[in-house]
Specification:
Largest sheet: 6 strands, parallel
GO molecular function: alcohol dehydrogenase (NAD+) activity; metal ion binding
Structural class: alpha/beta
Number of domains: 2
Order of helices and strands: EHEHEHEHHEEEEHHHHHHHHHHH
Keywords: Oxidoreductase
CATH topology of the largest domain: Dehydroquinate synthase-like, alpha domain
Strand content: 5-15%
Shape: globular
Number of helices: 16
Organism: Selenomonas bovis
Distance between the termini: 40 Å
CATH class of the largest domain: Mainly Alpha
Protein name: 4-hydroxybutyrate dehydrogenase
Length: 374
């Protein structure tokens, strides 16, 4: 039976001060926020709270070891609520600390013990990509397994997802590009997922509409067009999060995780690398149904013919975030078989959502294509 739900309460506020007045983070609260976010928007405004910057526990995107370092630093400390103010990685880490038990982290992610909610969780995104504020998913690099892995559990849903558009202002171009393209990929993969419903597809298409219109404006007018559309990009990210939170993501994400873990490529950027090649593989196997309807929708948004839709979309995304080959990230040709094995053995949760099944040979062929830059 297919179902659809939006679990968190969603609040749209227009200033940081509105957020502070409504939620009063402070004494007895645990707040996850980067030092940059603290200085830029919350200086002197989180008095009494225990504030964690996960980057103090290691470099790059979050790992199980970093989370266990935070667990150790909080030993013996009590807290009421958990807040996260940041990009998707910060939100994903914070979700774990709303649980009764976090460590050993690998055991939690492999479901060797249950995820049990203990603390109220309030999530405030500062990028427009992951949609993590409305999903029940946390993604970490599991160092012993040499890949990223997602934990999906109802205990990870936020109680409130709070959208504050000014927090997106001034994002570096590459950070914005990677996050917004990630949101687009969420909308596309959720639309073609076999778990999609009529309800989830509404959110997929609405996210696509806003994002592609915004990308076209940026391509015409430059980054100033982005700053005029912060609320739209933030809403689109949340819409896409609702869509994939119900219907799932698929091979684009599955293939990106070994690259992200091994070469420390940011999540959205790694997804952008995989996007075109995965959908080329789908079309080569079966071009009908939802994939064809998706293509018609993209063609309509871009004002082009059906056969031009994906090439035109990829050319547009290239203006937002120029793509690299796998070799440019330091990947060796000898790594590709190992990446493929990781996908086929550890990413079954995602690969089950593919538009059509992909074999090991087909996954390897995608990696080889991206290595050559074809």
């Amino acid at each position: 039976m297919k179902t659809f739900q939006i679990a968190p309460e969603i609040c749209l506020l227009h200033t940081v001060d509105e957020f502070l007045a409504a939620f009063t983070p402070g004494e007895g609260d645990l707040v996850f926020a980067s030092s940059g976010t603290q200085k830029r928007a919350f200086a002197g405004k989180l008095a009494g709270a225990t504030v964690i910057d996960y980057r103090a526990y290691g470099s790059g995107e979050p790992t199980d070891l970093m989370v266990e370092g935070i667990v150790a630093s909080l030993a013996g400390k009590e807290y009421r609520r958990v807040f996260a103010i940041g990009g998707g990685t910060i939100l994903d880490v914070a979700k774990l600390f709303a649980l009764e038990r976090v460590a050993p982290v690998t055991d939690l992610f492999q479901k060797k013990f249950p995820a049990v909610k203990k603390h109220p969780l309030i999530l405030v995104p500062t990028t427009c990509g992951t949609g993590s504020e409305v999903t029940n998913i946390s993604i970490l690099e599991l160092t012993k397994l040499h890949t990223k892995m997602g934990l999906a559990d109802a205990a990870l849903y936020a109680d409130q997802a709070v959208l504050v558009p000014p927090l997106l202002a001034g994002l570096p171009d590459r950070v914005f590009g990677a996050s917004a393209i990630d949101a687009l990929i969420h909308s596309v993969e959720s639309y073609t997922s076999p778990k999609a419903t009529a309800f989830s597809r509404l959110f997929s298409f609405k996210a696509m509409d806003i994002l592609i219109e915004g990308f076209l404006a940026i391509a015409r007018e430059g980054s100033a067009a982005r700053e005029e559309r912060l609320e739209g990009f933030l809403r689109a990210s949340t819409y896409a999060g609702i869509a994939f939170g119900n219907a799932g993501c698929a091979a684009v994400h599955a293939l990106s995780y070994p690259l992200g873990a091994a070469r420390h490529v940011p999540h959205g950027e790694a997804n952008a690398v995989m996007f075109a090649a995965v959908y080329d593989a789908y079309r080569a196997k079966r071009y009908d149904g939802r994939l064809q309807k998706l293509t018609w929708h993209i063609a309509n948004l871009l004002g082009c013919q059906e056969q031009e839709a994906f090439p035109r979309l990829m050319a547009l995304l290239e203006k937002i975030l120029p793509k690299k080959t796998l070799a440019a990230y330091g990947v060796k040709e000898s790594d590709l078989a190992a990446y493929t094995d990781i996908v086929m053995t550890q990413q079954g949760r995602l690969m089950a959502n593919n538009y059509v099944p992909l074999t090991r040979d087909e996954v390897l062929a995608i990696y080889e294509k991206l290595y050559r830059g074809a």
